C-alpha cells in the first residue's frame, strides 16, 4: 500500500507518495502565482491550486497512484477561503503575507496568547465583512487552505487544532473562541468542527479520483498546517526537538510536551499530534531572496549563489529583508526592506551577498527570542526547499550559531501529510511516529566569525533605528 501527501504551499503544491515504511518513492510539484491586485494584498485563486494538483498528480507514476490507500493534507497556515455551503470558493483565497487588515487589529486587545498578524483568518474575515459585504453575506464556510482542498476532493467540513489555533479566532488549544467570534460579528457557523489531524475526514470522490488517477473511496485524513506537518515529517517527537524550515517564509519550531507560556513575538501552537510547539515565524526568507534575485537580474539561482558567495562580505552594506512587514520577533507589519551603506564600488554580487546575510540575521533575531525564553538551542534539524546550497547552509549555521542536520527526506511537510494519511487509513497508529523518524545528516557546524557578529549587531541596530521611520511612512501613506 502507498500513501499520498499533499502540501498546499504559498507558491507551489507538492506531492509525495510514501511506502509502508514511510519512505518517499515518488514526488512531483507545480507552481502558481501569488497575486497582489492592490498594495499589501496576497491572493491565489483556488482554481490555480486545483490545476496544480491535477497537473502534479499526472506526473506521478500511474502504478504508484493505483496503490495509494490514504491521502493526507498539509497546508499553508493563517489565510482563508470564503466559501459557499458546498465548498465553492466565493473569491480568491486571502493568504498569510496579506497586510490589508493591519488597521483592524484593535479587537484583539493585549495581551494575547499568540501574536495577531494581519494575514490571519480573523483579521482577514473582519476586513471581508466591512469591505466585501456581498461576499460575506454569501459565505457559509470560512475554510483554511488545506481544508478547502480536502472538501474539494470529497472530504468533510472539518478542521484540526494545528490550523484553527493559528487563525486568531481560537484559544491556544485550538478550540474556537465563541466569545471572540461573536465580538467580531462573524457567524459561528462559518467555522468547522475540529478533529484530530490523523482522523479520517472523508473519502475521495469519484470525480476527483478520475481527475487525479486515483481510486475512489480512498481515506482522506483531516490533515494539519504545513509547519506541524514538516515537524512530523522531519521526525520531531520529543520535548526540545527543533527544526528550521526555509521556504517562502521561515520557521523555527521547538517541540513542547506541554503548552509553553505565551511570549511576545513568538507563537505557541498545537502540533499535528497531541503535543505543542513554540515557533518563531519570519515572513521574509525565500520571498525576499527571490525578489532580490529578480531585481539584480540573475537568470538562475546557481548564478546568484555563485556570485554572492564568491564576493567578500561587505563591512558597510546591510540588507533589511522585511519586504512585507515581519512577524517574529518584531511583530511589525509596517517594516520594510532595502540596502543601506551602498557605495559606488559595490556590485550586484555585494548586494546579493548582503541579501543572504540579511535573511540569515532575520532568522537569528527570531531564534534569539526563543533562546531568551529558556530554550538554549545549539542544534536543529533543517528542512525546506530554500536550504539546499552548502554555502547558504554554512552561512545559516554561522549566523544562527547552531549545528544544522539536514533531514534525509526531500519533502518534510509532504511526508508528514502522507503519514497522517497512513494513520487515517489504519496502516499506522499515532504511537508509531517515533519509529518513522527519518535519519538526518550533519551539514554545517558553526564557525566563530567576529566580523559576522559585527554585521549582525549592525543589522539589529539598523532595524531599531528604522522602526520610527516605518511608522511615519505608514501614517503618511
Automatic annotation (TrEMBL):
Domain Carbohydrate kinase FGGY C-terminal: 244-425
Name of this protein: Xylulokinase
Keywords annotated in UniProt: Kinase, Transferase
SUPFAM superfamilies: Actin-like ATPase domain
Organism per entry: Caballeronia novacaledonica
MF annotations from Gene Ontology: kinase activity
Domain Carbohydrate kinase FGGY N-terminal: 4-233
Family that this chain belongs to: Belongs to the FGGY kinase family.
GO BP annotations listed: carbohydrate metabolic process
Lineage, opening ranks: Bacteria, Pseudomonadati, Pseudomonadota, Betaproteobacteria, Burkholderiales
